[in-house]
Every structure is written in C-alpha cells, then in structure tokens.
Amino acid sequence: MATLLKGARSREAHAHEPTTKHTRIIVTHYGGPDALQVVEEERPEPRAGEVRVRVLAAGVSLPDVMMREGIHPETPSLPFTPGWDLVGVIDRLGDGVSAFEPGQLVAALPVHGAYAEFVCLPQRKLVPVPPGLDPGEAVSLVLNYVTAHQMLHRSARVQPGQRVLIHGASGGVGSALLQLGRLAGLEMYGTCSSRGAAAVSELGGIPIDYQHLDFVTEIHRLTSGGVDVVFDSIGGTHIWRSRKALRPGGKVVAYGLTASLNPGRLASGRSGSRHRFRAIAIFGVYIVGGWVLPGRKRVVPYSIQTLERVRPAFFRQDLTTLFDLLRQQKIKPLIAQRFPLAEARRAHELLGSGGVTGKLVLVCDGASQ
Ligand SMILES: NC(=O)c1ccc[n+]([C@@H]2O[C@H](COP(=O)([O-])OP(=O)(O)OC[C@H]3O[C@@H](n4cnc5c(N)ncnc54)[C@H](OP(=O)(O)O)[C@@H]3O)[C@@H](O)[C@H]2O)c1
C-alpha cells in the first residue's frame, strides 16, 4: 500500500534498517505543480522479460509538465507517475532476461514512470550506458538529444552550411539542437527570451528575442531569403509563422505544443482531451497546407515516442551514437539544476516559471551532487 508523504520527507529515520520500500512521485489530478505528491510504497517486482532498474537520474521536461496538466497526447489516466527519461543501474532480473546483468548502467525512455527510485521495464526498452558517464548528463541525452539528433538527421536531413531557425533555443531540446547543429556545420538562429540570449550565442546561435521582435521579419532581415529548416516547438498558429521564415523549398519540423500552456506555463485549467485533439488537428491542417500551397514549403511532424515504437532500432542506434559523442566530450549537456527526487514539485515550479537554460534533472539518493 502507498503512503502519502508530506512534502519532501526522506527515509532518514529508517536509514539503518534494510528496506523493501521506495519513493515514487504521482500526479493525483491534472493541474499545477501541487498535483505532484510523494508516496512511499513497496518496490515493484519485475515480471517475466522485465528488469528492475534503480534510478540514478530522471529528466524533467516540458512534456512532463504537459502530462501533469493533462494536455499532452501521451497523458496516462490518473493517478500516474511522470518522467519520460531515466538512467539507472540494473538491480533485479525477471524470468527469461538474458541480455542484461545486475549492476549494468542503462538508459530508457518509458514516456511516463521515471520519477521513482525503482522502475520495472521490459528488457527491450533498455539501452546500455558506457561506464564513467555522469548519470545527469547521460539522462539529458535520452529525450532531448535523441529528439534533436533525429530531427536534424532523420527528419530534416541537414547538410553543412544550411541555415536553420531553432525556437526555444535556450531550453532543453533547443540547446541540444544548437550543440548538434554546430557539429553538423549549420548556420543557426535561435529564438529565446533575453534570459537565454547569452547561452544561445555561446552555443553558436544568433539569438532573436521572441518577446520583443518579430522573428519572421528578423530572419528575412538577417538572411535575405529565409532559412532552410525551422524547428518549431511552439505549435498551433506559430507553425504558420515559422513557415513564413522559410526559403522556397524549406521545411518546418513541428514537434511541440508549448503554445498549449498558458503564459507562465502553470495550470491551464482547461480540459485535457479537448485541447489535445484541437492542437493535433491544427498540426494536420498545416501539414496538408504545406503540400497544397505554393512555395514548396513543407511542414513535417516529429514525435520521438512514435518513431521509437515504429523503429526502435533507430532510437537505440541514435542514443548509442550520442553516448559516444558525450564520452568524447564533443557534446556537453547544459544542466540548469539538479533536485532530489522528492523535490520534483520544486523542479516543476521552476520549469513552469520559464527562463531555465538547459535541462532539469531529478537525482535519487546516492547520485546527488
Ligand atoms: N515531439 C517530440 O518528440 C518532443 C520531444 C521532446 C520535447 N518536445 C516538445 O518540445 C518543446 C520543448 O520542450 P523542452 O523540454 O525543451 O522545454 P524547455 O526546456 O522548457 O524549453 C522551452 C523553451 O521555449 C522557450 N519559449 C517559450 N515560448 C516561446 C516562444 N513563443 N517562442 C520561442 N521560444 C519560446 C522558453 O524560453 P523562456 O522560458 O526563456 O521563455 C524555453 O527556453 C515542448 O513543447 C515539448 O513538448 C517534443
């Protein structure tokens, strides 16, 4: 049975007793950060074909916030544990597991469920992590960098010298796009608020303050002709404006619904499913518009979870490539802040208030720095 813990109380009082319990975060209702509760309960047991992972680091991302609000297309029914991405150590094997051993470091993209000390996952969902990597940096690759890498190289198929516009360029996925775009030899422009401008410049992008400038006008002024690709994380009617920043024959890769959140990105108070279908319908209209309108400007959708389900080998291959780049120090994820797992609510409050540069990470006992 799960026990609700008030706030961030830890298990310090029982530190000397062997425990079979663990801490997990649950969303009790769709809404603001107060929807996140800390529970203590029995550790899950792996079923046949599953592996139990002791989580070292779980990423906190805008898709987690959108699920908490109930507006993300992948939102599970209540109550649920958020957390798209994790890195941890294999702790116990279910029957029939042969590909992994206890003690091995692994990563996974469960889409939800990572905000917990122990998680059971099918072995096919796990990707080995090379030894020696920092769990917080490694977990930053699982959602943000795989998303960025696949959009650059599988959706847009960028070529050196091409011009790209990255929206939300100082955020989690945006900063990953900048780092990987620089390695690919791209000329990069990035929308951000004034708080993120220095980080965007440092990562090789030309910042455009979206709160004070019209990015379409700015892009045409700076490039005389438009960009080859726009990465649009904002969604809704914003996709239309992104299309206007393209040169003829260019492409918008549409991958986010940030516009679905209210300014301040806190509780929307809107019904989840109705809003979700509206946002997806707008996506559809723009994709079809890209085919039929003049200018040969296409809008293509991207979804990491859809691609992972349809082509799991791509996810495994791309994440392994990215771990290699991290090992060689060719990329360096920006970690804005690390929080203990039980302070997930504080991490959501911070992400919701905006201006976070890079990734927020939850760390479990023993992995905290
Ligand atoms: N399709 C996929 O597979 C996939 C995978 C991962 C993420 N996503 C989506 O990607 C988006 C970003 O996620 P994230 O975790 O990287 O979020 P994040 O770290 O919070 O970054 C979002 C960034 O967007 C900026 N921003 C907000 N409104 C903007 C606007 N109107 N114009 C330009 N920039 C704006 C924010 O800047 P300020 O805070 O400074 O205003 C922030 O830096 C979300 O919509 C998420 O759902 C999609």
Q: What fraction of the residues are assigned to beta strands by DSSP?
A: 15-25%
Biggest sheet, in brief?
7 strands, mixed
The helix-and-strand class reads alpha/beta
Ligands bound to this protein structure? NADP nicotinamide-adenine-dinucleotide phosphate
Q: What number is the mean pLDDT? A: 90
Number of strands: 16
The end-to-end span amounts to 31 Å
Radius of gyration: 20 Å
Instruction: Indicate the overall shape.
Output: globular
The multimeric state of the shown protein is single chain
Helix content: 25-40%
Structure write-up:
The structure is a single chain. About 2% of the residues have low confidence. This protein is an alpha/beta fold and 369 residues long. The strands form three sheets. Strands 4, 5, 6, 7, 8, 15 and 16 form a seven-stranded mixed sheet that branches. It has a six-stranded parallel sheet with strand order 11-10-9-12-13-14, with helices on both faces. The chain is globular. It starts with a strand and ends in a 6-residue tail after the last strand. Helix 4 links the parallel strand 10 and strand 11. Helices cover 32% and strands 25% of the residues. The site of NADP nicotinamide-adenine-dinucleotide phosphate (NAP) has 32 residues, from helix 1, helix 2, helix 3 and strand 10. The site of NADP nicotinamide-adenine-dinucleotide phosphate has 32 residues, from helix 1, helix 2, helix 3 and strand 10.
